[in-house]
Amino acid sequence: MYDLKALRENLDQIRAVLGRRGNDVPWDDLRKLSDERRMHTMQVEQLRQELNKGSEEVARLRRAKEPADEAMAAMKRLGDRIKNVEGSLRQVEETLNNLALRIPNLPHASVPVGSDASENVEVRRWGTIPSFTNPPKPHWEIGENLGILDFDRAARIAGARFSVMTGAGARLERALINFMLDTHTTHHGYREVVPPLMVNRASMTGTGQLPKFEDDLFRLKDEDYFLIPTAEVPVTNLHREEILSGDSLPLRYTAYTPCFRREAGSYGKDTRGLIRLHQFNKVELVSFTTPDRSYEELERLTGHAESILQSLMLPYRVITLCTGDMGFSAAKTYDIEVWLPSQQQYREISSCSNFEAFQARRANIKYRPTTGKKEAKTDFVHTLNGSGLAVGRTLVAILENFQQPDGSVEIPSVLQPYMGGMGKITKDTP
RNA sequence: GGAGAGGUGGCCGAGUGGCCGAAGGCAGCGGUUUGCUAAACCGCCGUAGGGACAAAAUCUCUACCGAGGGUUCAAAUCCCUCCCUCUCCGCCA
Fold first, then answer.
1. Which CATH architecture has domain A4-100?
2. What ipTM does the predicted assembly reach?
């Protein structure tokens, strides 16, 4: 979301920087509506001033017990006129807002220009890709052979793109959640949050899922609630409509939540296994910072997500998304991709973004800078978030990277305390 | 779900049609006084949008007393709808 004044004054510039990202934005309508809004606003304010003055005059006359009928009639006419102009203003503003909410964020200058995923830029790699004597199995085979993943029953209970984990698989999922949360809270300084999993329309608009992407969301039938597609939504909205004190920043939160996505338009992609589900678990990192420190924070946050993979000894790489592959709300995004032996490729396991003031403007999240004694003007915070990590995909990576020739899976040593000391999952594990 | 009571500035709290962007208090900021601390006293102290000024300081206008409508020349105040909070009852993990 853009500041409407800034939008009006820099329309062409914004349009140029957005390039292909702004292809479906009706720029001419925006320009026209912006001008109309300004005109109507000025008119309403001027008429209101007249009305206020006139009403004061009426009050004065009546106190003085002088006749006021004429003044009252004049004000009545003026009031009707105001109602008229206000009506048009309201209409213009509604349309304008609706359009403005659908303009994507401006990419940061450091983001590579490109049209799709093929033009993303690799930043670094970590870890050693494991070698196998036999072809590595996909995780669903490993999991089903071990009796810890059950897609047939998940389909019966719910449908396609759902999973059931049992026994050591369920425990491994829980171990990963606890390990991630513990790491982020005790070593990285995040405050743990358990938020609502359903949110209202205003929250979804605040983080940018609405109004443009309603089709991607699960929505309740009888209430205007949506299932969260990521903890980013409720956690960022923790501070919606707030003015934070400057020295409370940065505020760092972590939350484990299930996430719900309709995956409309992804038919035929990743149809097997845990990679793409309607419901999955994720540990999320969310940060609120001052504008001058948000890019520093993006590096830090990405590092926190990476540290989980390093602890688990999982090989990964970090890429910078190009302008064409970035999400709607982001100014800059790093994806972290973990190595999946069965696919012989890196797959996304975390996405870390700086939204700059884009979400803060939508959600009205400000801070008051603390520059010495003087109270400074409020400004919008910058918001960031990143997966730290997608739990299901982490489990996939563990099954695939640590699979053994006998079909068992070794458990990374940092997780073993969370698994009651279990060192590997075998067919006989209860 | 039923019955009732409420939602006012960072907080507490007054305000039942005009002189109310809103008394008073607390907190905060600046100052005076003062061996230090404290106290006392004085001043400042909401957000947003527009205009004036080259710009800043500043001045000025408009809006905002949970949200949205309505009545009225005029609404924090009256009416309607919705949201939220609290109390009691019912149901419930």
1. Orthogonal Bundle (1.10)
2. 0.83
